[in-house]
Design goal:
It is a single chain. It is built from 13 helices and 15 strands. It has a 7-stranded mixed sheet, sandwiched between helices. The chain has 414 residues and is α/β, with parallel strands linked by helices.
Amino acid sequence: MTPGCASVWSKKYAPGSEAMSSFEALSGNGAVATAMRQNNPDVVAAYPITPPTSTVQTFAGFVADGLVDTEFVTVESEHSAMSACVGASAAGARVMTATSSQGLALMWEILYIAASNRCPIVMSLVSRALSAPANIHCDHADVMGMRDCGWIILLSENGQEAYDNLLQAVRIGEHPDVLLPVVVCQDGFITSHGVERVEVYDEPEVKELVGEYHAGWPLLDLENPKTYGPVSFHQHYYEHKRQQIDAMQNALPVIQDVAREFNQKFSREYGLFEAYRLEDAEVAVVVANSTAGTAKVVVDQLRQEGVRAGLVKPRVFRPFPGKELADALRALKAVGVLDRSVSFGAMDNAGPLYLELVAALAVHDVRIPVMDFVYGIGGRDILPHEIETVFRDMLRVAGTGRAERPVTYLGVRE
């Protein structure tokens, strides 16, 4: 599935409608800002940070020009931004924000509160390395660092997917069986600032998809007073956490239901992940976000040489679709995972995607060798020939049936 594959000069009618979409040259940040405009959220609270600064700047322009009636809250820090988002969401508002890296880290305390208070906030996260040393370029330390905060996590290969995911995120988070915050991740500078063709859907069609939000338990319902975030000791805290667990379990089918509706309306093919040339593959890589686009080119080149290579690109990281990924990979002879972050001190100092995947394969009785390849830390480029070496390694492993080593740090000067 490659979103936006129609001709740049064409207009596409949405199924069952005479409304037309248009193709625009947009950066990933611009695509996200456009999705936010079409959603017209009640409240946006944000503190600009590189690389998503232009998302916030562009949306502030929409507010100033009267294109939305959003209450835009300018705050003094990212901690304050998420705090304002939680307050607005608890009051019954549809709420959005955007951040990255150190900004996300400064929000940390409130990320847990947003999820625990069941606030369906939608956040655009433009992934960037965490300090120190200071670095403004892409890796996935920030998004992988929040994997246990209780947020649903959607991943995006390009600007089109960031736009599409943000539209779906609203419906997912606000579903009454879920009511959890959702983060939509794309890669800093690589897609956030790269200008590509993005299909922007007709606004009435978007509004029909996302609908209106009517909070079930708004804090400002004076006829039915309630308390948010009280002290909860051992007598009740466990039950509160179990409710969050249930909500996250409910999210997986909701994500799939929303994707099916979205696909039918806008002629897409979204699911929990994308399987690329996997039907008859012997070896494959699992890779998230923008690097998947480069890896697909390598897959195509290897196919021309007769190598039965394939690729899996996760779209949903939380909740982790372990069974579905295990079933997709079951017939392979070897798998290489490309991780753009490290889980320090974890088994073999591997990356989070690898750790989640090998656990899922073990639980679902898939016995194939898997190797992790950590790459691109701090924004270091990953080149096609390096990805090809991953496939060559997997071919050797497929022949022996044993992984040569658990983790390779790809492209680092040892």
